[in-house]
Request: fold
Amino acid sequence: MGREMEASVQMRLYALSKRQFVLVFTAFFLSFIVTVFIGLAGPPITDKVKKTAATLKPRPTDFKTGPFILRSPPMSTFHQQLWLIGQVVTNSSTEAGIQFTQPFQVSVQIQGLKEHNTNNVLLSSSAHNRTRELRCKGKTCDEMIFLHLGYLDYTDYVVTIRFYGLEEAIFSIQDVNFSFKSYNPAFTQLEIWFRFAFVVLTFVSTCAFAHSLRRFYMRDWSIEQKWMSVLLPLLLLYNDPIFPLTFLVNSWVPGMFDAVFQAAFLCGMLLFWLCLYHGMRQNERRFSTFYLPKVLVVGCIFIASVTLASWQAYNELQDPTYNYRLDTGNFMGFKVFFFTIGSVYLLYLLYLLIRAYAELRSMPYFDLRLKFMTALMLIVLAISVTITVLRFGISALQDNFIAELSTHYQNSAEFVAFYGLLNFYLYTMAYVYSPSKNAVFESHLKDNPAISMLNDSEDEVYGSDYEETSLTTRSSRRYESDEDYR
Reply:
């Protein structure tokens, strides 16, 4: 049963020679490297102010109970968020390297102080109580996050912490090290300018790509061109044009929109990879048989991501001492669900990739499309995994920066690298998948493996070292000669 032939607009990809392919990848890497160097020269992502229980005024009478009254450094909207982290130091007589645990209760009361106002405002009518577990190795215990404020309404905060359940512990507490952590205002300014620059570049790229396709009917676009017309607007949302509202409105809404925009773009890119590897082999793309299975798999990932972000934000609004690690039942359920759906997606993508290469590798133009798409995708995935491992370590899915701040950043390179990588990835594809100069005359080209030019050599497809003549030039000459003959 023959496949339905589908006319498509000739892409610039077909007209590139080997030298031009090298220039495209070189431009991609140079742009990425420049952004990484800008990040390396940037400021630290977080500010940290340390305090110890021994230096507090008033000094606690007993370090096993408190109270520990701490006042935060002056805050502004450019600090974005605030964490209070504590670490207990014991006088344990156990040998070094021996671990022990001790469950106890933590009570946290938060007060806000606005500028030019001497009256403290209670952020909640009662103290927040949490059951925590003190995990120690020798005299040093693990850090604990006592509270996290997702947005800042006040210029100063006064936090009162009390411990319960450590009175009968066999060890004594020598000191408690507290740290107020927040985003560095200098990094926030860098983030604003970087997001703004990428918003402008993405808007220009989207308009240029749409302008290049204005002469062609949408039904004639190739599957890559159709998907680029979807991914570029999603990239615009990923760069978050409403990000400045975070500093103009004291609300969790702009941050929630940012999380939804990022999840939408990343899931759109996952769906694009599935559809591309399957769509090049199949021209009949009915929703029920072609799109629905892919939308279900990627949709589950999107729903899980948005639910996890909104669930954590909602609980932190109700209780600033909330931590997803303490809600072990729900968190482990989400973790298992995410791993399961992620594994299904990877197996599905691998299956489509193998099938595409098995059926299309002998067809020069489709082989070219597969090689370019796969090479660029593997480069992006390899860099992303490398950055993630360097950023979080091997326990990337267990240690969440937003919730834990367990990783100590020295610069802004990780943030800039992620944003730069995904933006330049889309810009590169938009350039390569845009119509070639002679695409109007080459609209006869069919996006179907059944009519691919099987007899063309590698030099004819990629361009030889001695002849830089492109596919479009040769085809136009043939077209003109046919007209003369007639």
User: Anything to note?
Assistant: The first strand starts at residue 46 and ends at 52. The first helix runs from residue 18 to 40.
